[in-house]
Amino acid sequence: MENIKTFTKWVAVWGTATSITERKEAFYAKDITLRYPIRIGFCGNKLRFHFSNLTGTDPIKITKAFVSKNDTFTPILFNGTSSVIIGPGKALCSDETIIDITAGDTIEVSLYFADFTQMNAGTLVTGPLSSGKYCYGDFCDKKDFPIDLSRNTNWYYFLNTIDIFTEEKNKAFICYGDSITAQSWPDYVALKLWEKSINNISIIRRAVCGTRILRQYDCITYAAYGLKGETRFPIECQVAGADKVLIQHGINDIIHPVGVDVNRFRPWEDLPSVAEMIEGVERFYLDVADKNKLKCWSGTLLPIYGWRTYAPFRDELRNAFNEWLRNSDRFEQCVDFDRVVRNPQKVEAFAEGFDSGDHLHPSEKAYMAMADAVVEKILLHSDRNVHLA
Q1: 28-29 and 155-157: which strand pairing?
Q2: Which of 188, 249, 273, 382 has an alpha carbon 20 to 30 Å from 200's alpha carbon atom?
Q3: CB within 8 Å of 255: residues ≥ 6 apart
Q4: Which of 262, 248, 367, 366 shows the shortest CA–CA distance to 309?
C-alpha cells in the first residue's frame, strides 16, 4: 500500500539573511533576471516565498516571479497579481503556490526587474548548494539564459526564505553567524543529513560576512559587513517551524578594532571585553530566542593565529569567550568548532589542511569536519526526534 503523506504545517525549507550589499560605483540594475536553484529537503504540496528589502532605502518592484520544477514554470503571485512593490525596510510573503514537491527536488526561483532597482538588500553565501545566476533581459519564464548575457553569482538579492506546507514531523534548524557560516559548513550539514537519511530537518542559514555582535559600520566602505546582532537576530530568528538555532558569532568583534591611526573606521573603543560579548549574546540572542521558543546551541570561535590583526590579547579574549560558550547553561548544546579545526600541538592555529590560507576562514576540508560535528550533535542529542527514511 502506498504511503500517503499528510501535510499539516508550514516549515522553512531554505533561507538566507538579508543585509547590506557591497557598495560599488553603481548599485542599481534595470531589465535583469535573477535565478536561484534551491534544493528542497521535504515533501509538500504548497510553497510560499518571503522577500525582503530590509536594508534598501528605495522601494523595489518585482515585475514578475516564477518557480520552476522540471522546466515547468508556475507564476509566484502577490495578492493575486504578478508584480509587487516592497518598500524600504519592508518584507512580504507571496501567495501560496500550489506545487507538488518530493523530498530532494530542486526548484528554481526566477525574479525579473524591469525598472531601475536598488540592489541594496541581499547577502553573499557560498557552498555546494549555494549558487545562482543573473541575465540581462527578461528570461524569467525561459528554461535557459543566453550564455552571452548571463553570469553566475553568489549574491542572493531579495529572496529571503522559502516555506513548504509539509508533514508534522519536519522542522527547521537555524545556523546564525558571520562569513564562516556564510561559507560552506551549513550546506555540508544539509548534505550529510540527507546522506544519513535524516529527513526531517532543514538547514536555514542566517549569516552575513563581517558582521559583529555589538557594533555595525555606518560608512559605505564597510556597509556590507551588515547590521549588528541586536538588530539582526530578532528578524532572522523568525523562521517557520524552527525549534533550534546554532550561534557561531563574535570573531569580528575581536579582530576588527585596530585604532584610528591605522583605520579611521575601526577605533580601539570598539574592542569589547569578554563580559560585554557575553552580555550581548545573552541580551540580543538568548533572551530573544527564549521569547521565540527556540533552543540555542553555541558554536565556539575558530583559531586566528596568522591573521593580519592577530595578537595574543585577541586570542586570550577568544579563548575566554569560548570557555563561556562551552560551559554556559544558557545553551542546550555546544558544538566545539574550535577543537574540531585547531592544531593539537599549536592550539591557537588551524590544523594542517584546515586553513583556507588567510588564517581566519577554514578550508573546504575543515568545513566538512565542522559539518560532521554538527550532525554528530544532532544524532546524539537526546531530544532530537530524528526521523530516518
Answers
A1: unpaired
A2: 249
A3: 304, 307, 309, 310, 314, 360
A4: 262
